[in-house]
Amino acid sequence: MTSSADARPVEPKQIEIPGRQFALTALDYGNEGATPMLLVHGMRDLAWSLDSVAQAFCDRYRVVSLDLRGHGDSGRPGYYALPHFVSDAHATVDHLSMQRPILLGHSFGGEVVSQLAGIFPEIPAACILVEGLGPPPWEGEGSEELRRTLARRSVQSLESIPTHGRSLPDLEAAEARLREAHPRLDEKRASMLTRVGTRPHPDGGICWKWDPMLTTTFGSFSRDQIEERWRWIDCPVLVVTGSESGTWWSRGPSRANGPRMATNAYLPPSELTRRLALFKDVQCVEISGAGHMIHFDAPEALNQTIADFLST
Question: Is it the case that residue 96 has pLDDT exceeding 70?
């Protein structure tokens, strides 16, 4: 593994994955012929977000970091159900002739690669889920009343999706917003991610590249479906969690629909144990002092954890 702190950064090449209606984009870090590694970012993120992982492993692997549809420079078709994202990852593996790739996904990207690994268990050699076991449970999740409330809110939210993202005046304001949300993110990386992750806003200023219509994703799948397919995965699985990720969930996605179950880490211990038990072959490592964006908060610790897993 190359140390991302000491190595000269590799400049990836942006490539296209052709489709029938639109193209996907991805970052190719070279080393063609080596064991392939496909990286998949989280919701409202982009391929560049996982650059610190790519830089650490591109000396040994052929690393490709994908922009999912509606993200980064990939096409924005306006429809975003979970199977569409799984299809994006599958199309990338197929187009690049990736044989037995290592699949790594962060957050929603973990949901995507775990579904790919379950539906097509012959594809991956290993699967790495970084904070990728789905969101923490809602308080009172088992009640029909809460499920009805969440279903109503899900439908109502579709009626108010803005055509474009919120406008920010300039790159400086966008970077300040990013660093406020992620105070442990390295200053140079924050600047880079702001530059590559924004686009001009039609009404002036700039906005983040992700499509606001991505909100439609969250009503397109169920936890039961997700978890059933985890049982179908045949390859070894590494689950990486952050010891402080519960803080991120409590101030972020939870606010829209109600409270999540209170916990410092990603999931309450009993819930984490239950979800891990659904995999045939799984390891779980918690990164101390890291939140949900482990690759921002503790990149070296994350990369070492991945390297240890791949060396066994």
Answer: yes
Q: For the segment 153-201, what is each residue's pLDDT rounded down to a tens digit?
A: 777 777 777 777 889 999 999 999 999 999 999 999 999 999 999 999 9
Cross-strand pairs, 240: 130, 285
Q: 113 by DSSP, 3-state: which?
A: helix
Taking phi over 0 as left and psi of -120 to 50 as alpha, with beta for the rest, 134 belongs to: left
Query: 103, 233 in Cβ contact below 8 A?
Result: no
Number of neighbours of residue 125 by Cβ within 10 angstroms: 15
Q: Could you tell me the two tokens for 166?
A: 């919120």
Q: How far apart are CA 76 and CA 249, in angstroms?
A: 27
Q: Give residue 109's Cα distance to chain centre.
A: 3
284 beta partners: 239
216: left (phi over 0), alpha (psi -120 to 50) or beta: alpha
Q: Are 179 and 172 in contact (CB under 8 A)?
A: no
Encoding tokens for residue 270?
């009993």
**Structure confidence by residue, pLDDT tens digits, 268-288:** 899 999 999 999 999 999 999
User: Beta strands 237-242 and 126-130: pairing type?
Assistant: parallel
**Spatial CB neighbours of 252, under 8 Å, sequence gap ≥ 6:** none
Q: Phi, psi at residue 19, to the nearest 5°?
A: -135, 175
Around Cβ 165, how many Cβ atoms within 10 Å?
17
Q: DSSP assignment, residue 41?
A: -
What is each CA distance from 297 to 123, 254, 311, in whole angstroms?
Answer: 31, 21, 24
Confirm if 193 and 49 have CB atoms less than 8 A apart.
yes
CA angle 68, 177, 70 (to 5 degrees): 15
Q: Which residue type sits at 297? A: D
User: 3-state DSSP call for residue 219?
Assistant: helix
